[in-house]
Amino acid sequence: MNNIPKVKLGIVAVSRDCFPESLSVNRRKALVSAYESKFGKDDIYECPVCIVESEIHMVQALEDIKKAGCNALCVYLGNFGPEISETLLAKHFDGPKMFIAAAEESQNDLSDGRGDAYCGMLNASYNLRLRSIKAYIPEYPVGTAAECADMIHDFLPIARAVIGLSNLKIISFGPRPLNFLACNAPIQQLYNLGVEIEENSELDLFEAFNKHENDPRIPAKIKEMEEELGAGNKKSQILPKLAQYELTLLDWVEAHKGYREYVAIAGKCWPAFQTQFGFVPCYVNSRLTGMGIPVSCEVDIYGCLSEFIGTCISEDAVTLLDINNSVPDDMFDESIKGKFPYEHKDTFMGFHCGNTCSRKLAFCEMKNQKIMARSLPVEVTNGTLEGDIAPGEITFYRLQSTSDNLLRAYVAEGEVLPVATKSFGSIGVFAIHEMGRFYRHVLIEKAFPHHGAVAFGHYGKALFEVFKYIGVPMEDLNYNQPASLPYKTENPFK
Questions:
Q1: Measured between alpha carbons, how far is residue 68 from residues 22, 63, 159 in Å?
Q2: Residue 212's pLDDT is what?
Q3: What torsion, rounded to 10 degrees, do the Cα atoms 232, 236, 241, 246 define?
């Protein structure tokens, strides 16, 4: 995927000048060796210039990692560490940063070989707070070389998302459809996150689309689509227009991303879109999302933003779905009960018209949009990619700005069950433990919209840390709490 950052993390070791510098030197070397043996050399850079003991060393290290092209930083306390210099390094480094500390190695060397980094991490965190510096500190930030290598590896997807947001432009087309107030998007929080937004009219897009008529690249794009769809190519007559539309969006991205490196799109998809363009854009949206350019439906700007974060973390296609309908009793009894460890209220169906990447579907066909065809001519509703979502682990999540401009988010891990949906659209039977309570006391109680982003895998840990890092207040960072942990609004007498 070319639309997400590549992280290069600089490892800078620090040392309190009353401790042997060799402690930090040797521990840094051991950390780098452990990382390279587990994960390779591509993601990290070992700063060899100095061990940071002073402000002068801090400047030297900062210049070195910048010169090496590092866009993320790991401050490694090989011993107690100099709280001023090490936090100044974090302050002046423009990018995501983490702090970790070395554990003591052996009871046989607790005199000259004792580093006290366990204590030093407390001073580091205190000084980070004094300077109002955002930094990632793992759940337990003190470890052996191998354990610290794992901490760094866990930080990479978090860093990718943070870097991506600081270089992202969201391109939107048109206002929300009627009766979609839930997709309101106060843009102040986008700017607070470092995200740029370009809002356009559907007429701008329609003009650009018409200018791409007879584009010489259309036949090659049609061939790509035919190869992807295979036997599911049931609406071949619409492929020329879909190819024309895909080229329109890709060209728009290149012409309008400006100084930004990464782009995501919040698109208008109905109701006037079909009658004017002559198709629905779902399949094209699925293809761009598969390329790493998330496209949300119904001009859902924060849905689009959420998708981009998930793309950075997973380095894979994501999707945006309606938290749509309950699972019927007879389907639950026949296909789920006793076969999977879920109660009925743990299950629901996630659906959208046809925007999910073909790689994430168990099977797929090009069809027309059934709901839209109830009120529009069938021939203008072609272009959805329909099929059951492939079974497997998922993470349901969303970042949202409330109507009064507060950041709020949720994360819940679960799975798509191998159960036939017997329905239409891009759709799956989802299961998340304690979903019924989560639905009532988070999604409803905290006024989240009906769209949720889906990452294909369990990425809750990284998503939770990203939302913390970018400033979502802990009281507004939600998850599916176990039954033993009631929500604040949950009736204790139920």
A1: 24, 9, 17
A2: 97
A3: 30
Residue type at position 340: F
Condensed to tens digits (0 to 9), the pLDDT of residues 199-223 reads 999 999 999 999 999 999 999 999 9
Residue type, 358: S
Instruction: Report domain 9-165's class.
Output: alpha beta
- Cα 272 to chain centroid distance, Å, stands at 30
- In tens, the pLDDT along 214-273 reads 999 999 999 999 999 999 898 889 999 999 999 999 999 999 999 999 999 998 877 788
Nearest to 414 by CA among 397, 392, 389, 431: 431
**In contact, 81 and 96? CB cutoff 8 Å:** no
Name the DSSP letter for residue 444. I
- 461, containing H or E segment: helix 460-469
Domain(s) of CATH 3.40.50.10940: residues in the chain? 9-165
Gap between the Cα atoms of 264 and 172, Å rounded: 9
Query: How many CB atoms are closer than 10 A to CB 141?
Result: 20
Average pLDDT, the chain: 93
Secondary element (H or E) of residue 242: helix 239-256
For residue 321, the model assigns a pLDDT of 96
